[in-house]
Specification:
This protein has 266 residues and is α/β, with parallel strands linked by helices. The chain is built from eight helices and seven strands, in the order ααααβαβαββαβαββ. The longest helix is centred in the first third of the chain and has 18 residues.
């Protein structure tokens, strides 16, 4: 136990004393700092701007009706951002490139398998853009933060998205649901993701991990799961005409795990 006289560590790296000594230097924001967009474009204006953005950055395959749905989603997200902190991306350009295009470019690299669950979807990425592209396929959005769950339900209703389930919980080994695909942009380590879906992904099902370019250490850790999963695809790519490099790892399940003994759960 720490001594009662020991000061708490300042994990934000913010020092009020240093801020007073250097008033001209902007202080670092506190953790959880709520950013708000300076401008929220109307749906029509957002649609027009997204047309140019997608045309110039490899999103020509996105249709007019799909782009219009994304513009509506953008407006919902930014209006919600004015009330609570959901995303660090405040401009339409950033949302278009780093949320929308980042979510759907994977469809040009691999074939998605359905039913597909977006694990740790946050405010809906990549699940909502993928649902817009695949309106008839079964997609599940799994999210453990209640305020995000309520937002996802609002988006589902506002965009009239059918065959879309919102699961208000974190996914772990006790989650049992027959899935052919799981996708995630979450920062969780690959080996943990593989463990957490061990009893919902069916044999032959695939896990799509959307990562940054430096995922080699995670691949090494994932080798501990080689009895049950095999790496089928490893794509290095970038959002076209941007410096944003990405990596898509696709694992296939080759062997089932023993089912958990739920009676032992407290």
């Amino acid at each position: 136990m720490s001594s009662p006289s020991m000061a708490h560590k300042n994990k934000t790296n913010f020092s009020a004393y240093k801020a007073r000594q250097n008033p001209d230097k902007p202080a670092l924001p506190l953790r959880g700092f709520h950013r708000r967009p300076s401008t929220v474009h109307s749906v029509n204006e957002a649609n027009d701007r997204l047309y140019d953005l997608f045309k110039n950055h490899g999103g020509e395959f996105i249709t007019h009706s799909e782009r219009l749905q994304m513009a509506r989603f953008y407006e919902l997200l930014m209006n919600e951002q004015n009330r609570q902190n959901f995303t660090r991306l405040m401009t339409l350009k950033d949302v278009g490139l780093k949320h929308f295009l980042d979510s759907v470019l994977v469809t040009k690299l691999t074939k998605l398998q359905f039913p597909l669950m977006d694990m740790g979807t946050g405010p809906g990425f990549p699940g909502i853009p993928l649902k817009i592209l695949y309106p008839d396929q079964k997609i599940l959005l799994a999210e453990g933060v209640q305020k995000r769950v309520e937002f996802l339900k609002k988006v589902r209703e506002s965009l009239d998205l059918k065959n879309l389930d919102v699961i208000g919980r974190n996914i772990d080994q006790t989650f049992v649901y027959p899935l052919q695909g799981v996708i995630t942009r979450a920062v969780e380590d690959a080996s943990n993701s593989l463990k957490n879906i061990s009893n919902c992904l069916e044999v032959g099902g695939r896990l799509y991990l959307m990562k940054g370019p430096n995922a080699d250490p995670e691949l090494k850790l994932a080798q501990t799961m080689k009895e049950h999963y095999t790496l089928k695809e490893d794509h290095h790519y970038e959002i076209p005409k941007t410096p944003y490099k990405r990596r898509l790892l696709v694992f296939e399940k080759i062997k089932n795990f023993p089912l958990p003994d739920f009676e032992d759960e407290d």
